[in-house]
């Protein structure tokens, strides 16, 4: 038996749904196409790993979250949605419009054998950081559910990617990685931020990123976009802790 998850990330919606961004991509239109494809795969859960908005102000950010809600309703996706913030997001309007909980961290069951936890690594700039209270929450959740497999969702990349996005790092990723290594029940860490698909294995855990639903970044030393198409990641969580995954391009 498996539990199907779709991970979408880095939508970068503008307040104006007609506005285009890098490579002449309209993020509203590309997200609409991605969500239609996600719906065709009938996931049990959709994870949105941050940077829903591309706007600098909270008011325009709220408008972009309302556009996401419209697209979500139009997609007729029946799966629950788990949302975490990215560095471009505005916490209060994002939480009000798209998050049913009281904020972050947030947890939910994913079938009989898995538990999913979403965290907030947003700071006042583009870099990331996790708080001591979130790390304590993570440890508590794993200790409360020691027989389950655990999947974590964060926005920033825990491991350096070797490209220019390392200029926007996770400042205390070392303490996060130490905690993950101490808890062998953690099987998967999903993240966004770097706008390209990546898989990295540690001793017991797989670290994976998803493509952006709009423009993709090249993993080069200097800033550049790639010509890869928008997309998302599909995962199947098996009861024995194994994970199967594939990238879907639109």
Automatic annotation (TrEMBL):
<dbReference type="InterPro" id="IPR029052">
    <property type="entry name" value="Metallo-depent_PP-like"/>
</dbReference>
<protein>
    <submittedName>
        <fullName>3',5'-cyclic adenosine monophosphate phosphodiesterase CpdA</fullName>
        <ecNumber>3.1.4.53</ecNumber>
    </submittedName>
</protein>
<dbReference type="InterPro" id="IPR050884">
    <property type="entry name" value="CNP_phosphodiesterase-III"/>
</dbReference>
<keyword id="KW-0378">Hydrolase</keyword>
<dbReference type="Pfam" id="PF00149">
    <property type="entry name" value="Metallophos"/>
</dbReference>
<feature type="domain" description="Calcineurin-like phosphoesterase">
    <location>
        <begin position="4"/>
        <end position="196"/>
    </location>
</feature>
<comment type="similarity">
    <text>Belongs to the cyclic nucleotide phosphodiesterase class-III family.</text>
</comment>
<keyword id="KW-0479">Metal-binding</keyword>
<dbReference type="GO" id="GO:0004115">
    <property type="term" value="F:3',5'-cyclic-AMP phosphodiesterase activity"/>
</dbReference>
<keyword id="KW-0408">Iron</keyword>
<dbReference type="GO" id="GO:0046872">
    <property type="term" value="F:metal ion binding"/>
</dbReference>
<dbReference type="InterPro" id="IPR004843">
    <property type="entry name" value="Calcineurin-like_PHP"/>
</dbReference>
């Amino acid at each position: 038996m498996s539990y199907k998850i779709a991970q979408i990330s880095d939508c970068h919606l503008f307040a104006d749904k007609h506005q285009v961004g890098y490579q002449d991509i309209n993020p509203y239109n590309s997200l609409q196409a991605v969500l239609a494809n996600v719906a065709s795969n009938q996931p049990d859960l959709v994870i949105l790993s941050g940077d829903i908005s591309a706007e600098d102000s909270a008011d325009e950010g709220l408008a972009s979250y309302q556009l996401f809600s419209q697209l979500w309703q139009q997609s007729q996706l029946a799966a629950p949605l788990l949302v975490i913030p990215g560095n471009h997001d505005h916490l209060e309007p994002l939480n009000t419009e798209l998050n049913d909980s009281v904020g972050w961290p947030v947890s939910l069951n994913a079938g009989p054998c898995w538990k999913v936890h979403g965290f907030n690594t947003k700071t006042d700039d583009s870099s990331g950081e996790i708080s001591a209270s979130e790390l304590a929450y993570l440890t508590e959740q794993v200790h409360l559910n020691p027989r389950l497999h655990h999947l974590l969702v964060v926005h920033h990349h825990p491991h350096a990617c070797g490209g220019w996005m390392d200029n926007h790092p996770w400042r205390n990723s070392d303490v996060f990685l130490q905690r993950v290594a101490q808890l062998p029940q953690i099987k998967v860490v999903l993240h966004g931020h770097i706008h390209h698909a990546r898989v990295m294995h540690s001793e017991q855990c797989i670290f994976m990123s998803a493509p952006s639903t709009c423009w993709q970044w090249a993993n080069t030393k200097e800033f550049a976009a790639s010509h890869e198409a928008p997309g998302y990641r599909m995962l199947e969580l098996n009861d024995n802790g194994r994970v199967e995954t594939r990238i879907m391009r639109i």
